[in-house]
Amino acid sequence: MTSLNEKTVLITGASAGIGQACARKFAAEGARLILAARRVERLKELAAELTVETLLVELDIRDRKAVNKAIDDLPIAWKTIDILVNNAGLGRGFDKLHEGDPDGWEEMIDTNVKGLLYVSRAIIPLMVARGSGHVINIGSIAGHEVYPGGNVYCATKYAVDALTKGMRLDLVDTPVKVSTVDPGLVETEFSQVRFNGDKERARTVYEGYQPLTGDDVADAVVWIAGRPEHVQIAEVIIFPTAQASAMVTHKE
Fold first, then answer.
1. 15-29: per-residue pLDDT in tens?
2. CATH classification of 8-246, choosing from 3.40.50.720, 3.30.300.30, 3.90.1210.10, 3.20.20.140?
3. How far is CA 20 from CA 36, 63, 71, 94, 144, in A?
4. What are the catalytic residues?
5. pTM tops 0.90, yes or no
């Protein structure tokens, strides 16, 4: 196993859910953390509970110029990013395609696809120049199976899957590793965001079975990051035990 102590890890969408859980798990391994998100107050609360060095970056990854500036403006001591966790992402709506909200489509595409591209484009060249690094993308089972009402969200996660594979092909002649972690049902703020703050509707998504937690996914991310230098975990799909596919879940 490769030690993560003193490794520099940049996590997007670190203010909640899987991103927040990844921050805590990497901190437990002694990593230094660059925590990026739009909600900087939440980042401050998170950093206050961690016992490792942290650098907070208020960032909307949909803004390409802001992404480039954020990376360019990193202090010299933080420029060596060993691990990038492309976690920021969201779903909007559950409508049929012909009844969908184009504003929601754009938000998903801009965050889940273009935002991941902007961050990756800014950071991967630094890894290539240094001759080391690891990109871990947070995908979804929605990137493997299309389900009713998933249409555009699934398309964005299929794009993440394709981009992950493309990165791996493009970086095969370098020491930089590329991985993806693709969860099924995880109880985070995701469903609240998807249903525009409808907490009751979001709650029903996770009733009748034990869903994954952000910690469950973060465990996999940290395990992947800690493999020996010659080992690249390409893809991990994680389900709750009660889930068998995107739309098959056993509820009591």
1. 999 999 999 999 999
2. 3.40.50.720
3. 10, 21, 20, 25, 25
4. 153
5. yes
